[in-house]
Amino acid sequence: MANSGRLVTDAEVSGFVSTISSIAIKEQVIIRAAEDIVDNALDRVLFEETYTDEEYDINAEMMWGGVLQKPSNRFRLLQYPVTTFTELKAVNDRDKTSGAVTSSTVLSKNEYHVKLRNGEVTLFETVFTSSDRLWPSLVNANSLASFPSGTARLLATYKAGYTLTTVPQDIKLLILQLISRYHRLSVDNHFNVSTVESSFGISNLLRTMFTPEERVILNSYKRPALA
User: pTM (2 decimals)?
Assistant: First the structure.
């Protein structure tokens, strides 16, 4: 039988919540809802998944005449920690009607660095002349590297997130505490939790159930701003 949760096992749930002896549909819905509400609170997907051609806007500060004044040499992936980074592409052209990419260029991995821990992508701070580089028109007045700027200009393909064995223990404990709390309420108040559709209502309730200590844990995993 497949495990009900993505970040906690059925055995962990049964061991943590004494009133749960078996994982039925009701418990499956509660487990997924607890995991989803932690994702929503962090504005991240914690479970490991693959993201293909995820779009990123790159905004550079320009001065009159189109000269790049402040290079945009860093951005942060939406999901992390990164377990595998496959490629980064710059969009050259799109179909004017559909918006589909019609031309793109894969950036060399020698040109940038990906911090696996927090998903920060940074161009190497190499000084070069305009004839050295794939993007000579995007060299600023000081010849500093900058990503191509524009809306949805970069496409990243990578895998990020945690598995059952790599998820931090405080996050796992937080999920188990939410499961326990809601299961206790459902038993005491005879809530009807029997279908997957009810997970939305569970999530709305769980959102109000974080303790101050749990919010401190959540805050430590929220996406930091680029310095």
Answer: 0.79
